[in-house]
Amino acid sequence: MRRLLPYMLFGICCLLLSAAAHGIFLRELAANRFMAGPNDGLSQMLPFKNLLYHQYTAGEFFYSTLFGFGTGTYSELAYYFSTSIIFIITVAAVFLLESAGIIGSPDILFWAHAAAIINIIRLAAVLFIATFVFRYMKFRPVPAFLGACVYAFSNIYFRHATYWEFFADAYLWLLLLIFGAEKVFREKKGGWFMAAVAISMIDNFYFAYVNFLLIGIYILFRLFLPLEKSESPKKTAITKLLISGLIGAGISAVSFIPAVYAYLNNHRPPFSQDVNWLGFIDNILFTSAFIVLPAVFVLLVFALPLYREQKFRFFAFLVLFCILLHYSPKAASMFNGFSAPQYRWEYFMAFAAGGAVAAGFSNLSWLKLKHIAIAGGLALLSYALFALIDPNLGIERSILAVVIAVTLLLFFSYVWALHKKSRIGQSVVLLLLGTGIVASGYQFLLALMEQGRTVQFPLFLGVMGIALFTFMLFAQASRDAVYGKVAAVFIVLTLLFSVNGSEYVLLVIRGETQLVTKELITGPDYNDPEIFGLLDEIRKRETDPVYRIEWMEGIRNNTPIAMNYRGLSAYSSILNEQLLRFYLYDLEIDMARESVSRYATLGKRANLHSLLQGKYSILPLEDVNVPAGFEQVLASDNYAVYENRYPLPFVHGASAVYSEERLERQPILMREHALLMGVILKETKISSPLPPAPKKLSYAIENEKALLEDGILNVTGETGGVNLLLNEPVPSGSDLYVSFHLENQALDARFPLTVNSYRTSRKSNISVYKTFVDDLTIRVPADESIRIRMPKGTYNLTELEVFEEPYDVLRAAAMEKHPNQQVKWNGSRLEAQYLNETEAKYLAMPVPYEIGWTAEVNDKKVDVLEANYAFIAIPADIGLNKISLTYRPPHFYKSLLISLLFLIAGTLYTLKQKRL
């Protein structure tokens, strides 16, 4: 116990410092405001954590029917939390608390409250482990801890933890990878590196990729800039790293292979914009949202005698290389899989800066006054340069010049006072500087509290003052060791102060986490009590176990997860490719808002509602655009519930078989009819005659504050477009399907689009979230004309077609005699019975197609076919069909076997190394 006591005390110290680093968020938490972004935080992080918690504690680990039309969560949410080790530990801890009756059943509000606590504990672990890693590199305790603080208290941790919490786990696994690599270089032992690789690849495949690039850079630097004289030969180190890494990768197979399959089975348009090699994206000395290099590093990097020390040389060069990468959008693209540039890797620069600080702080005695004076002068000039070249700092050049001149005057005055050993001169400078720091700190805090005021100028003053004061402490520390401890305390305090200021400015105010309140999460803009009441009423009247409801709060596509009902929308960076293609290309379903990584609504198209079990639609009372065949059954103060009068059975017996290839050039409406009349198979040798062609309507074009000529629409009014005047009347019970190709010629302009009463929006051409799918099909109720409207601008508008949909095919399908069905679908297990009296060849179901589904009919294994573009079908028997579907993640059992084999190999490999 005595041996553990120092570690326990240090752990408590790390926890307290981590809490201090989260001071702003603890203050927010006390006011019921949470450490979660208003966009992805509320739309993805909190719903996914709540979904997976309840899945896991119910014994379901692989599939959810609440996520979109149904999703393999083990693989598709591996990018988020499904295999996150930190999240799984959190689930276990929360489940114990719930089982003991200490907390109630967790909901989204619980996870919002818990976010700051979880992040504090994780950052404390980062501090503890980073200190241990630096100690292993033979730094003394104080420098090692100081380096760990530089790593832990950097902006990017809080940015990740707030917006995309699972990103923050990479902070931990990078440390393990570096420690594992050091064990190979120093002791020729690969066990830790093997474990670190396995943990990284199990936890999150995306950040495994990022961390492997980073550890690759680290290893390359280590090979050419050794830290110790007695290290493994390069060839030996490379061999052990490769063997250990390959075994670790094999151990991770059970998680990594399904996750990578989901990533490859995703669909996202390629990033087509030019990516520059260099670009000044932010200011890493003052205002960067990713990393602000601390003054202690900026000062030390100019202290030339320190470069004689191997560790300092290694880490300083590593940081300088990272700075080059940081200012390269091309490198940011590489770290994001050669897609849109994303700056998510800078925690590695923070670690390297921490190593440089630990190394430099260990050797302050090497520095004489002239060295510190030169370093301080160059550091201050660097700050001045970064202030002058940054147009976003927003401070007048004349004011900058005055501040820089005064700073340099104080700097040289202190150097002169030190040289002359004038205590009076030193005291005067310290008094002036201290007054300036206190004044700028007060102005900075005042600006933080008064959100309308700019914080740039007091921030600039404060950073310059801290840099100058750090220089003075180092100058004293080079002569008196006591000042080294004072400098260490000062540096940690300035890091805590700076990071809390950044949290408030960049995250709470500009990032709008202040909007994420208890009132929001429990109120009408997120979990609307009025909608909850309507959902309860629907549940009371409904006996069908597999119906779906069309409702989404604003642009939050994961509303069904948040409100616990089966819906028609989903939002995730990784989604089923077949479903996305079903929306974007096969059926051209407009989602009311163009965006990648999402699908939503069914474009108010009744055929699709009936096919996909969309039985209810909740709409605002003022919305008159109701899907055909839906009638109002419930209402509240602001909303009405409409029920589908033409529901189709979950299991659809199909005798007619159509091929995707034959329907490829047919109208969208014909494809819908083919889905209603039979089944569409991706691969089939038989193909029934195509359904009758839908009625195509002729029209005359009328310009409205616009001119359409040769496919170019020039809108001259604030809003304008074309009217398609139909040449014959359309019965009031029919709908119109309007298809066209539309592109905005403006480079950067998103725009709203309306077609009669239907409203949608399109992204700008430079948005990273644009689908670049510009073939649209819009359904509107019957009318004498079709009015297409958009804002002023120039557009390509071609391929205009109008079809009538009288719903004869839907009514006929709904009126067919359907045998009674017994369907039970709970997660990864679906059971149903279907009496096949019409000798249907196939049974189609609105279950999204994924590799991983296996099927049995009457206890005989049958093939699972990709059908109806994105769903599944199975061969049917004559008579009663007892259907059993089971889902397991893609290649799950094969990857589990690989993991077990490599785990055995890794165990033997580690034991063999211990004997050596």
TrEMBL record:
Name this polypeptide is given: YfhO family protein
Source organism: Planococcus shenhongbingii
A Pfam cross-reference name: YfhO
Key words, A-Z: Membrane, Transmembrane, Transmembrane helix
Keyword Ribosomal protein: no
Superkingdom of this protein's organism: Bacteria
InterPro entries: Uncharacterised_YfhO (IPR018580)
Transmembrane segments: 77-97, 109-134, 140-158, 206-225, 237-264, 284-307, 314-335, 347-365, 372-389, 395-416, 428-449, 455-474, 486-509, 892-911
